[in-house]
Amino acid sequence: LREHEEFTKVKNIAKIELGRYEIDTWYFSPFPPEYNDCPKLFFCEFCLNFMKRKEQLQRHMKKCDLKHPPGDEIYRSGTLSMFEVDGKKNKVYGQNLCYLAKLFLDHKTLYYDVDLFLFYVLCECDDRGCHMVGYFSKEKHSEESYNLACILTLPPYQRKGYGKFLIAFSYELSKKEGKVGTPERPLSDLGLLSYRGYWTRVLLEILKKHKGNISIKELSDMTAIKADDILSTLQSLDLIQYRKGQHVICADPKVLDRHLKAAGRGGLDVDVIKLIWTPYK
Ligand code: ACO
Ligand code: ZN
Question: In which compartments does the protein localize (predicted)?
Answer without folding.
Answer: Nucleus
